[in-house]
Design a protein that fits this description.
The structure holds 2 protein chains of 2 kinds.
Chain A (H helix, E strand, L loop, with lengths): L2 H30 L14 H8 L7 E3 L5 H7 L3 H8 L32 H15 L6 E6 L6 H12 L4 E7 L2 E2 L2 E2 H4 L16 E5 L3 H16 L5 E6 L18 H8 L3 H11 L5 H24 L34 E3 H15 L3 E5 L15 H9 E3 L4 H13 L3 E8 L7 H8 L2 H4 L9 E6 L14 H4 L6 E3 L4 H11 L6 E6 L6 E3 L13 E4 L4 E5 L1 H16 L4 E5 L2 E3 L3 H11 L2 E5 L7 H12 L9 E4 L9 H7 L3 H13 L1
Helix pairs in contact in A: 1-2, 1-3, 1-10, 1-11, 2-3, 2-8, 4-11, 5-6, 5-14, 6-14, 12-18, 14-15, 19-23, 20-21
Chain B lengths: L2 E4 L9 E7 L6 E2 L4 E6 L4 E5 L4 E4 L10 E3 L3 E6 L27 H16 L6 H10 L17 H10 L14 H10 L17 H7 L16 H16 L2 E9 L1 H13 L8 H15 L6 E3 L2 E3 L9 E3 L1 E3 L2 E3 L2 E2 L7 H17 L12 E5 L18 E15 L2 E15 L5 H16 L1 H9 L1
Parallel strand pairs in B: 12-16, 16-17
Antiparallel strand pairs in B: 1-8, 2-4, 2-7, 3-6, 4-5, 6-8, 9-18, 10-11, 12-15, 13-14, 17-18
Helix pairs in contact in B: 2-3, 4-5, 8-10, 8-11, 10-11
Classes of the chains: A alpha/beta, B alpha+beta.
Amino acid sequence: MTNHDIAKTCLGLYRKMQVIRQTEEELARCHQRGLIHGACHTYVGEEAIASSVCSHLRTEDVVFSTHRGHGHALAKGLPPKELMAELFGRQTGCSRGRGGSMHLFSPEVGMMGTSGIVGPCILQACGGGYSFKLMKTDNVAVAFFGDGAVNNGAFHEGLNMASIWKLPVLFVCENNQFATEVPFAYSAGNPSVGSRGVAYGMPGLTVDGNDALELHRVAGEAVARARAGGGPTLIECVTYRTRAHAEGMGDFTYRTREDVEEWKKRCPIQRLRTTAIEQGIVTAAELDSVDGEIKGLVEEARKFAESSPWPEAVSATQFAYSEDPVSSKVPIQNLRPAAGREITMTQATHEALSEEMGKNPGIFVMGEGIGQRGGNFKTTAGLFDIYGPTRLCDTPICERGFVGLACGAGMTGTRPVIDFMFADFVLDSVGEIVNQIAKIQYMSSGRLKMPVLLRGCIGIGHSAATHHSGNYYAMYAQIPGLTVVVPSSPYDAKGLFKRALNSNDPVIFLEHREILSVKGPVPETEYEIEFGKAAIVRPGQDVTVVALARMVHLTLSVCDELEKEGISVELVDPRTVLPLDIETILQSVKKTGRLLVVDEGFAPCGFAVDVAAQVADRGFNDLDAPIKRINGAFTPTPYSPPLEQAVVPQAETISKAIRELMRE
Amino acid sequence: MPFSITIPRLGWSMEEGTFVRWLKKDGDVVRPGDAVFELEGEKAAQDIEAVDSGILRIPHDAPKPGTVVAVGAVIGFLVGDGEAVPNSINANTSTSASIPKSDAPSASAIVQSLPSRLAEGHEAPAAAPSVRRLARERGVSLSALEGSGPSGRIMAEDVRTTAKGKTMPPQAHSAQVASPRARRVAKELGIDWRRLHGTGRGGRVRERDVRAAKPQLNQLSGLTVVPVSSRRRTIANRMISSREQTASVTLMTQIDATNLVGLRTQFKQAANGSNIPSYSDIIMKLVSLALRQHPLLAARSEGDQWMIPSMSDGLHIGLAVDTEGGLVVPVVRDVGSTGLFELANQTVKLIEKSRAGTLVVSEMQGGVFTISNLGSFGIDAFTPIINLPETAVLGLGRIRREPVVVDDKIVARDQLTLSLTFDHRIVDGAPAARFLQTVSQAIENPSAWLLRSDG
């Protein structure tokens, strides 16, 4: 480096650190004055880390961060005024008032989000790295996290995945020695974070987190290695936050005033200043001028935030779903054909996946045994040979890890398909689905898309017992941001799967294992089925039955017999639980006056409850009888066949309920 | 510019705290990070550090130790050397931001409105659901009762005691229920579902029961069921009652209305912006004069008796009005003693209200006679139906210029046919004819009759 370069680097780092410091101090003042409405976690004392790492990053490189993320956002290029406006809850904030201190999004500068949950940023950075690997760019992804994250599963799963797939990721641990208030010395069996790198097969280092120049050097090497395809690096930066965990919180119940004062003396900004002046790299006047310039910038930022408009209350639900939900040109054919070529549901989704993978190089599949083996249920058979291991990626058994990765990949331009095999397995990753995948579009005010398809089998049968049989659609249907598909026929499965592969919203695609091999007509031409459009499986006059998945087949099996008795059943399959096509159900009830919902899932707060409540509300005057529901027994699924049979709705249960309903 | 020292929020939901004490004295130099005062929040007392530097100034009205202070409140100042010292904590307005209020009432506002209403004495008295049901069935208002149970709770016995004193019509089918759909269909078809036998569980009336009660007409091809409004049903019942309960006879006569037309023309010219009396108005006024001479035609049948109104009072006369919802007969008050232009104002208002459906029941009651005008539809003569409990109704036909023989010459004159239907139970043919004759004379010479009446 020339002297000029060194001076430029020093000034650049100093400037970044001062922007962070002065903004944070102004935010602390504003918090004390009640201008900040929620939590405010400052980065004071740790400025050197974000500043040094980010000075090596380009706009296209991506950063994933934590609840203490102001510094990362500013270092990555977020203007202070957008940060302040966000904390002030204004429309001009970087998350348009939807995030606040812990949910900062600025994809325009590669700031892919801070998170109120500890751990996910590590997995999302792996996802960013995976996208870059798949798209063959030399971009890198960086996860900043605290010492509190390194004893979390996300750390282990994320570092392992990054290592086995050689992902271009920097894992930057800011060890400020307290996980909120729990000392790291207490909570870590191995108190050296840097030394853990070797455990995952990657370089791991421990650096003085308050030494900006040393950090700059180390981070530069790691970024270069990642860009060159050399894989990930773990960097532990030992540091200290010199303000409370959050503004307004007491600080001296878990650490002493003396400790804090001691660390204040090691201020990274002062240290760089002293070094740079002593070594004659820059003059005090140059640095003073930076200080003054930033003072003005921060002052201006606060004024901007204070004078910015509040977001409009009517827009509160905007961005929960993509404003531009689908990006395909395949014709929509919601109506089922009566006849044609017959294939199974598994073949139907395989066909959909295969067609779309051929068109879209951003689609990749992750799961256990979905590579060479072709999937436990033959969901990916033969695709590995065509598309190779990056697009058909076998995973370690770490559901949380690869679902969190999918989130980061979806945000960075690729389209992950996560194949769970059994939906029960995914419960380990529910936090990633509910807290991250479902909420990212909203928190980023629609500037990030979340095209993630999560598929797995549900349903009771063949003594699969309780860890391979759950019906979880009702649970997911409570989460804004998700789409929940539960197909009952090969035709629906293919059309909805193709829709999901072109959706910008995350889709949970749940396939009932007992009907995977049921055949049905599926045209050979391409088509899609819209979400939220029910199918009238069988038209009728006397009673409406709403059912999903296997319950559609079970209900259908009793319809002819009932018809002979003079009871004409109209069978409605909503196909998607979320969004729910309540209009079609209401139309049917308007005709028949009677409603039975057959739901293999549990009753409390479930699918049948929702259908019943909406019909009772909006279709009250059409009802000629009380609404009836049949649900699976409220118990874990048993193994023994007679027990298993006792917990699932049976055909006789359905026909009996329909006869009863006619007598009401 | 001095820096304000404000009360910070400790923890997420703190709105106020207790000011414990100052940790610096007035005049002390304060630097960022110095503990300035102690504040007790939700969890514990905490030292609050300065975020700015300056000389501490504690105004005389700063909170005293132990005072509860709101988050954001100013309690003191940090001033620079030589800077003016604010003498009050109110000297500088607080910088705290106000969050805009949405127009819609917030959930908390709704919740709060409830207790305040209760406090005003609208609280529903305490009673078990079973007691409430009993009270509903017996038609007893709970708010009128003193409860004899614990804490004044109303007991079943309280309801029963009160109910004994009341003469409630027994509810014929109090246990009967109908499905929402059955109720809807019953309403559409104009069927009272309470009269039906329910075939559903527990005797619930279902849609099929309602449809079965309907004549099979609607199943014939090409016919659709006409929905019957309650107004229509009332009209139907009243018409049938009139036909069944009266011995009606209609007399018709053609009279000369040339003077009537002339008079109205004069009124038009003299109207000066006010409502011009219509032919109906003028004839109504003339009829009221004729009724004074033939009071029996103004009799009302009340129960078994026929009552003749006092002729000194202004007579109330009904006017049949055609509206979208069907025939209504608003009653014009005190026709005998009301000036014609005022009468015109009254009828215009009543017709407007009739068409708008805003007539109140009292405006359709108390009539002694009714006038029905079909002239505007080109009808000459018809047989109007008596509006019970009145005795007679006068139908007005169209006024038409016709050749008539006057003094052996054929001249053009305005002709009008009157149709008087009367109840032969009360009035015989001859007196009715005499009444019609009087009316005819009055219409043929309206000015003279009107002038005479004013005397």
